[in-house]
Amino acid sequence: MIADVRCRWQLLLLLVLLLLSAETSARTLMPTPHEARIAACIRQASGGHAWLEKTLWGLRDQEAGWIGAEIANSNGTHDLGPLQVNSFWVPKLAGLLRRKPTQVRSWLIDDPCFNVQAARWIFLNGLSVTGDYWRAIGVYHSPTAWRQRRYAASVAHHLKQRFGARIFASHNIDR
């Protein structure tokens, strides 16, 4: 009788674990409304360029921000929104757009498409200045060379995870 009760408990525990596993898998496969919105913004910002869409996904996966994010950094800046655009860029973007910095900051935090477009601009500006894809990825993160290299390696890891090892075969992400 004791063995029968133990067996039932083990079966019940196994069933609960399987149900929890299935629920976790379903959540992983079904994006939240926020994630679906960010994905649509990434598609739009890429303008049909697969390499740019993959790049934005690499930055997104590395940064892992969310709509409404405002994360303080030790240097007094903040990382804002889904692609964690650093507040360092707010005055520059405000000047380009002829908008108040407070408005641009608010957009970066709460408007995922504005946030993704700003990330796109920062990356493409870095690409224009450096002429090098991986340096531009690094510039997105930091002006410091060793931080750029470390960040680019981490983004490369995220790209490989999302798109598979063949992402770097031929010119899948290069222009």
Question: Care to describe what's here?
Answer:
The protein has 175 residues and is mainly alpha-helical. It has 8 helices and 3 strands. It has helices at residues 2-29, 33-46, 50-63, 90-97, 101-110, 112-130, 133-141, 145-163, and strands at residues 70-72, 78-80, 85-86. A 3-stranded antiparallel beta sheet has the order 1-2-3. Helix 2 runs parallel beside helix 6 (112-130), helix 3 packs across helix 8 and helix 4 crosses helix 5. The relative contact order is 0.11.
Summarize the structure.
With 175 residues, the protein is mostly helical. It contains eight helices and three strands. It has helices at 2-29, 33-46, 50-63, 90-97, 101-110, 112-130, 133-141, 145-163, and strands spanning 70-72, 78-80, 85-86.
Order of helices and strands: HHHEEEHHHHH
What are the segments in which pLDDT stays under 50 over at least 5 consecutive residues?
11-28
The CATH topology label of the largest domain is Lysozyme
Largest sheet: 3 strands, antiparallel
How many beta strands in the DSSP annotation? 3
